[in-house]
Structure formats: structure tokens, C-alpha cells
Amino acid sequence: MAQPTLPLLNQAPGNLHWYRLRTAHFQVLYPQGFEQAAQRTARRLEQVYLPVSASLERPPRRLSVVLQNQTTNSNGFATLTPRRTEFYTTPPQDPSLAGTLDWLDLLSVHEFRHIVQYEKALQGLSKLAYGVAGYGGLSLMTLGVPDWFFEGDAVGTETVLTRNGRGRIPNFDLGMRANLLAGRRFSYSKAVAGSYRDNVPNHYVLGYFLTTYAKRHTDPNVWSGVLNRYYNFPVYPFSFSNGLKQGTGLTVEELYQRTLNDLDSTWHQQQQRLTLTPATAFRVAANPKIFTEYQYPQYVNDSTVLAVKTGLGDISQLVLLSRGGQERRAFVQGLVNDPGMLSVGGGKVCWPEYGLHPRWSQKIYSELRVLDLTTGHLTRLTTKSRYTAAALSPDGTKLIAVRSDSAYHNQLVVLDARNGQTQRVLPNPAGDFYQQPRWSADQRTVAVVTLKPAGKTIELVNVETGQRRAVLPVTNTNLSQPQPWGNYVLYSSPQSGIDNLYAVEISSGRAFQVSSRPLAAYHAAVSPDGQRLAFQDFQVEGSRVAEMPLVPAQWQPATNQPAAPVGYAEPLVNQDEGARLVGAVLPDSIPGTQPLPAERYRRLPHALNAFGWGLVQTPSGQGVTLGVRSQDLLSTTQAVAGVSYDQVERTTGYSADVSYQGWFPVLDAGFSGGQRRTNIPTADGFINDKWSYNRFTAGVRLPLALTRSKYQQTLSLGAYYSGEQVRGYDSRLRYRDQIGNNSLHALNYTLSYYHVLKQSYRDVAPRWGQVLSASFRNTPFSTGLQAQQWAVTGGMYFPGLLKHHSIRVRGGYQRQQQNSYNFSTATIYPRGEGYVSYDRLRAGSFEYRMPIADMHLALGRWLYIQRLKGAGFFDLATGQSKVIRPTDGQQFNVQRYSRTTGLDLSFVFNVLRLRTPFEAGARTIYNVRTGSWEVQPLVLDIGF
């Protein structure tokens, strides 16, 4: 029976009213209530249109920009399918993302740069691919461009065209800097593809330095020529590297080595100028060979701190570290909205977690959780809220929280820590943005980082009167993580070029440097007795929690903060054509004072938006058809229609599918038809037959996201009708799973449930969890073939013998009435056995999966192997049916036992130096029933 083929998209709530602003080069879509920020963003986009396009020499065609304000996830993306960019508008609390920039300003530069990059593909053979297959064909042509170019070039653009940008934030390059200073110089293959053991900086970092080096040492517009050469003829391997060679004289490998040499020299010189402050690290249980982080320390008592532990081998969890003691797990968190902070007070700990709307994936809350460290009791303090950061008062009775509403406004809110009730909302007449507030010991004042149009400052705010006082001047320095202590406010600052801890004396305004660590120091926390300072000390193996005496007399006066942070791309500010057009810093004011006319944007009139035509990839990604594919800009309606040719049967077919996802249940409908051909073996040879069919499917599904803890949890319900009519089936014989010269009208009801523990990157499979699926299929109508089937399958995951091993146990039961038609199997079946339809089928499976070896094996440019994995399994099934003997009409039972066992061996690898990994291998199967061996190819992940 046909099932829905169109994927579930990310939608905002269906009851939102959308509006549109038009400018010369943009169409900005936004929900009701967001107009003020949308007006500003539309004018900002126009302002940066030419500057962002300049160095690639390709101003794009008109672009649609969708502003998503219902999620508290701070992000953005640009895509060609369909062509648009989306901004997730909630400003981040993490200071390493936006620095001193307005969040929407950053997205306007960074995401629009991606559109400019894609626009470069409209030339040569790539333009021909666009004509033949639409944006799907154009996307295919971009696969030969390394991911590091797209993101690195965009980070470089945001850095050169703005007053800040990630290229000027030391935290951004921290991992690469640590690796080079420790002598960890990875191969280019490893730098692109990653590792299961080491901290390999992502493609944003790698790409920023590679693209910037090329610009600095050749021409700011060098990448325009590289892309021209690539897109004109992109069809052979390593054509991007060859285009780079023609433009710079360097292959990508040579560019990588030259860049590392340059950075290694720069960073070693920086280290030679340092006078380090000593610190003692807390003992941890982490394997030093596996990158593991201990972050955001908070004192529980004078000798114990609480920290967040994460890493390649660990999911996010709270751990207690004691001076001279052992690491102890306190709690495993859910979907943490990481604001770059943790808060402890009164024996409790507080943090924000994402709260998912069960149906609308673009509506994500940020809710507060409070854990009692003594009893282990977890309180879900707020629900359906938008608190992006929060801190407990020292006695644990109050919270100061940052509330970010859907209109792009920030507020400081005082909450009751017992019940989450609002006690006071502090005024914010200037519309500033707040980050990482902390209480003073008097519990009447909070320190908070305040982002203003001109930059950042740290303010002390009286929560009773709302009065505020800046303790530092507004600066373009990326201040973060304030912590009041007596007459001081401790904070983190990159003003020396390395993130370290500083303090400002409240009474005098004098600033001091508290720590001088070689890589970075963050998140100052003061012990309850005021004698020691704990902080996050970055090391090449991952951050550790360290301590140092808290002695103000030993602090050094801070040097004057630079007028602007200096980054690797700094020489380009005076050379880049775009920088000359917009200025080195985006101005605080935006051109244009008259508001743009706003008009209502309705979904239905814009439901059809074709982005693929000609040779179109099927929604499953596993085939192509000749047709057209459509998806509207708000991800509400998608459709695909086309004609196809089956090379095996040598027949043609046609199909059309549509899915409307703007209501709580998803509505699906599909129609297909064409010809089929079969060969049926008989005693006299094969009977050949050819027939035509028409099939119609329609139904509803209800996908629900129910995650509320460390377990990922989903529930999906579905109900579908499928009708099929066959004509011209002349053979007297047919298989029972074929319709023959008949019709079939069936209903299919499905349920699936998923409740599985989060996985770390090194886990091969879930280590705890339960899954359940059930279905009921029947033909309740009096016409056509008759059949009925119901099935249920359940599975459980358990930890294996070692940390990243996993055990899966499954069981299934299927029962069907095989009157005149057999449905396909709806439960598990032994691997290596051909499926046989029975009246009753019982099946079970045991599987053990584990990593065997992690490696960094490069075979030239063609292959990079990261991991070897293994699995062993044992499957069994018992089938029973009642059969009528043709000779005498007597009924008797038929029963068969099937058992297979085997081993899987697979490799995780990357080809052609693409970042996307693949997994493939081989499976050996021993059939206990027949005594035969079989070896099968095994493809587990094709990377898309």
C-alpha cells in the first residue's frame, strides 16, 4: 500500500498572519507583530546588497527572506530548494555568535552572502544544469565546492563588513589555536572530515582562515575567479582545487599548509608575550584521548563545583567536581538552550531548556528548569515561556531572567524561584539587549551585559527601583559573563587578543586583568568564603575547571581596550570593495526613514512555487523523474508531479503527490498510474503479461514531538485510504500480492512511538530506549479484493559491555486474513530470508553493535576512513497458515521456523574530501534452517 512520500517540513503555527515588505532586491515575509524589526531588516538588507556582493562580483536576483519569530533557537540558513533565506530572530545569549553586533544585522550579512555564493553558479555548465533540472540541478553542481568555502567565506564577509564578526572573536578560533600550539597539525583530509577522538575545528573555522589567507596573499576578489572556473566546468573530480590552482598557484592542500604555517607563527609569537597566572585544575574522569569539555563552573560549597560535561563521548550532563575527590554525575539534562552559563544558589541549580511545541517545529520555547542538588527533585519552573537566560539569587529564592519576546524586545524579569511567578518586570525604554545576568550578594542588584547600538557595556541594575549604572564604558569589545563580588564585577574579555578574566572596581571604574591563561579563561565563579576563584580553562583536550586564589592585590591593571578588535581578516578592511562601499563598520542608523508599505501575505495564493523541473529528484532522494517539484516559501504546501520510466520492467508511469501541512493534521494525497510488466514462472515456462493501473491515495497524519527530558520522544498517527484499479491483466495466474485484473480499496491505520536516550557522537546506537510501531490494514468495502492485516513491533535498547556499545532487542507479531490479497509485511523478518506471507507471524531479533576502531586513514585524495564498526545479530521467526489441499479440499496447518545469524562489518568514510560521511560494508548471514551462507553488501548511510 502506498504511504505518504513527501517529507514533513518545519512550519510555524498555522494560525499566524503573515505580511510582506518589498524593496528593490528583497521580499521580506514576517508574522504579525514583528513589523518594526522587519522594516529595519528590510532596509538593512538593501544597504548591504552591493557590499556583500562586491568581492564575488555577482549581485543576486530578487530574494525572499522569511523572518521566523516563534522559535527561541538563534540561527539562520540559506537554501536553493526553494530559493530563500530564513532568519531565526531571537538574539543569542552566547557571546561567541554575534559579539557586539545586532543579531539581525549579522544574519543580513552572513546569510545573504550564501545567496551571492549560490548565484555564482549561474554560468557555464552549471547554468545548463539549472535549465535542465531547476534549483535541484544547480544544487547538485555546488557539491564540488567544499563546505568550508561557503561558511568560511560568509564568516570572512561578516568580519570585514562589520565592526565585529566571528573572525574578530578569539573564541571562534580557539580550537584551531589550541591544536597548533600543542603541535597537533592535522592532515587536510582530517581537517575537512573530522574525527571521533580529537577536537577538529568545524568548517566555519577552517574555511574562514583558508578563504582569508587566499584573499590576503592574492586579491580580495580571488574567490570570484575560482568559482567562475569551477562552475563553468564542474563535472570532474577536484575541479574546485584545479580552479584554485589557476587563480592562486596553490591546490587546496597547499593552501591549507600555507595557512597553518601563517597561523602557527602568529599564535606562537602571541604566546611569547604572555606572563601566565598559575591555576590548579579539578580532577575529572574524562579520557584525555577523547575531547571532553567541563564548562560553566558554579560553587556548591567551598570545595565543590558543579559543571556541565559534554564531549565527543558524552551527552550534556551536570557533574560535581571536588578538590581532591572524584567526579560524580548529578543530572542528565534535556535539550539545553545553551546560553553560555549555569547558575547555582541555595542548593539549587537552574538552566534553560528548549520546549518543543508538539506539532509546530518552528515554535520552540525556552523554559526554566530548577534542580534541587540535595534531593534530586527537578522542577519545571516555567512552561511555554521565552526565558533565554536565568540566574538564581544566592539564597535560591529568586531568579533574574532575560525574556526575549516574539517582537524582538528584551526584558529583565524577576521570578519567584519556587513557582516561576513574575515578581517584577524591569523597564527597558532604550530597547537594549541583555546577556547573562547575575545577582550581587545583596540580592537587590544584578550585573548584566547590555548590548547597545554602539557596543557592549556592563550595567548594575537595582531590581527594586529599576535604576541602572554602567560600570564600564560602551565598547566594541565582546564583554561577557559578569559576576559581582564585593566592590568588583568580574567578567570575560578578549581585549588582549585572548579571552581572559577581568575585573572592574565599582567605586572607581578601574579595570584589572585577573587571569592570564595561554588559551582562554571564562566564567568566573567565587567560592562562598570569597577565597578562591573557579573558572573554565580551555585546554587542547577540552575545557577543564580550574581554581586560583582570589587576591585583588595580585591583579594587573588592564591595558586600554582597543577601538576595534583585530582579526585575521583585518588587512582586508581597507582593500575589500564591499568594505569601501559600506564602511568598516555598519552604521548605527539605517538609510530611509519612511516605512515601507506592508501587505498581507496569504498562504493559499502562493501555494505553488516550482523550484525543480525537468529531471527532478524524488522526495525520497533515491530516484529521479521527469517533472516538476514545488514548495511554498512558508513550508506549508509541497507537491511533485512527473513521468518516469522503469528500466527493469521497461514500462512508463506518471504520478502526482501533494501535501498540505498548514493544519494540525497533515493532509496528503497522491495519484499514480502507468504500465506494469511481469513474468510468472509455470511448469511450462514463463507467462508474460503487461497491464495498466491507476492508484489514488489520500489520508492524514499527525506527527507529534513530545521530548521533555534527556529522552527524545515522538509519536506519529496516520490514517490513509488507497484505491487501485487494474486493466488489461490477462494472465490466469497472479501473485497474491498483486491485484491482477481486479481492484483494491484499502484503509491503513498506523502508530509509531519513539522514546530513546540522546546519543553522543561516539555512540553507535542508542543505549537506552523503547520504540513501538503498530498498523491495521483492511478492505472494509464490499468491492474488489479482500484482505485484513494487523501487526505490532516493539524494540528496546540497552547499554552494551563498554561505553559506546549498544544492544537492541526486538519482537513482532503479525496476523492477516489472506482471502484474495496479501499485504506486504508490516513487522520484522529474519535477515537473509525471503519473506513468506503467513496467517500468523511471530518474529524476534537480538543485535549487538559496537565501534571497533577509530582512525584517520587517508588514501590519497580519494578516500578518508574514520571508523570501523561491527555488529552481530540473531533473528528468528515462526510462520503459521491454514492451507487447503487442492486434491481433496482438506484444510491443514503449515508452519515454518526461520533462524538466521550473522555479522556486520562497516566503515565510516569520506570520499573526494567531502565533509559528508558515508557508511558501507558487508554482512555475512548463516541460515540455520537451510545451512547456507550468504554475503551481502551493506549500505547504512549515504550521507544525505
Describe the structure.
The protein has 12 helices and 47 strands. It is α+β, with helices and mostly antiparallel strands. A hairpin with a 6-residue loop joins strand 28 and strand 29. It is globular, with a radius of gyration of 31 Å. The two termini are 26 Å apart.
Give me the Rg, rounded. 31 Å
Q: Let me know the largest β-sheet.
A: 16 strands, antiparallel
Compute the average pLDDT.
93
Category from helices, strands and their pairing: alpha+beta
The portion of residues forming beta strands comes to 35-45%
Q: Which runs of at least 5 residues are low in confidence (pLDDT < 50)?
A: none
Cα separation of the termini: 26 Å
For the secondary structure, the number of strands is 47
Strand order of the largest sheet: 32-33-34-35-36-37-38-39-40-41-42-43-44-45-46-47
Task: Write down the overall geometry.
Answer: globular
Q: What is the gist of this entry?
A:
With 944 residues, the chain is of the alpha+beta class. The longest helix is centred in the first third of the chain and has 21 residues, at 252-272.
